[in-house]
From TrEMBL:
One of its GO terms (biological process) is rRNA processing. GO terms for molecular function: catalytic activity, acting on RNA; pseudouridine synthase activity; RNA binding. InterPro entries: PsdUridine_s_RsuA/RluB/E/F_cat, PsdUridine_synth_cat_dom_sf, PsdUridine_synth_RsuA/RluA, PsdUridine_synth_RsuA/RluB/E/F, PsdUridine_synth_RsuA/RluB_CS, RsuA_PseudoU_synthase, TruA/RsuA/RluB/E/F_N. PROSITE patterns: PSI_RSU. This is Pseudouridine synthase. Pfam families: PseudoU_synth_2. Residues 7-152 form the Pseudouridine synthase RsuA/RluA-like domain.
Length: 199
């Protein structure tokens, strides 16, 4: 590990693309928030999702964390339409068929109360005759729009999606649009996890 490696976590706001290049004049990109040369996101978050994004210039770490064989945990808080029952939660836990793919088993639970999160801009569509609920989903894979496809498959469409953790990294006090370098402790844990499989 050399000193010039950078490791950044960023709280990606809603409506921001997980890339530095702009392919449409109407959408913000990482360039609007992060003025650090040569760092790139590890994986991605859809433009309409929010939360933790890890960026680095460490190619080997980026490769290991992006490779399907690695399977590090990603934690999401998901606001869904209506209140999922035990059957739906169980389906999400054991895996569902989305298109021609069956999702791996996941840790899924209904959150007892709404998490304390910054307001989304713009806010979700609100329909007073349809309740919403929050679930926590911990996945070890990251297919395209997977969480949204999974909740829709069991009958509870996703309204808001926030990634709150990647492996041992957490948003904690970061606010949307803010970023910081990893602490030495965070980096040590992450390196142990990625390169030795231990924490």
């Amino acid at each position: 590990m050399t000193n010039q490696n950078r490791y950044i976590i960023f709280y990606k706001p809603y409506g921001v693309l997980s890339q530095f290049t702009q392919d449409t004049p109407t959408r913000s990109t990482l360039k609007d928030y992060i003025d650090v040369p040569n760092v790139y996101p590890v994986g991605r978050l859809d433009w309409d999702s929010e939360g933790l994004l890890l960026l680095t210039n460490h190619g080997q770490l980026q490769h290991r964390m992006s490779h399907p064989n690695f399977g590090h945990e990603r934690t999401y808080w998901v606001q869904v339409e209506r209140i999922p029952d035990e059957v739906a939660v169980k389906q999400l836990q054991v895996g569902v068929e989305i298109q021609d793919y069956r999702t791996k088993s996941a840790k899924v639970r209904l959150l007892a109360e709404e998490p304390q999160l910054p307001e989304r801009n713009p806010p979700i569509r609100f329909r007073k005759n349809i309740p919403t609920a929050w679930i926590e989903m911990i996945l070890t894979e990251g297919k395209n729009r997977q969480v949204r496809k999974m909740t829709a498959k069991v009958g509870f469409p996703t309204l808001r999606l926030i990634r709150v953790a990647i492996a041992n990294l957490q948003l904690n006090t970061l606010q949307p649009g803010e970023w910081r370098d990893l602490t030495a402790d965070e980096l040590k844990l992450l390196h142990n996890l990625v390169f030795t499989g231990r924490v």
